[in-house]
Design the sequence.
């Protein structure tokens, strides 16, 4: 389980809590076309990957398949 303390200690600057993002270039993007997600946490490093938790998505998600949503 990833705790808030772990996220805070391993924070990256890719996304911030509250940022609006969309998925791209992955299977999930095909499954959720044009869906705007809200970052539930700041992005963080875990096992060499840059990850973030999204509201309404189960588990963390790789930031390499997310981009900021432009309104």
Sequence:
């Amino acid at each position: 389980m990833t705790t808030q303390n772990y996220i805070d200690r391993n924070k990256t600057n890719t996304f911030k809590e509250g940022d609006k993002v969309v998925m791209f270039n992955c299977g999930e993007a095909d499954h959720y076309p044009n869906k705007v997600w809200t970052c539930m946490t700041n992005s963080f490093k875990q096992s060499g990957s840059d990850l973030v938790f999204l509201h309404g998505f189960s588990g963390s998600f790789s930031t390499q398949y997310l981009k900021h949503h432009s309104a």
Observations:
- DSSP finds two helices and six strands in the chain.
- The first strand starts at residue 20 and ends at 23.
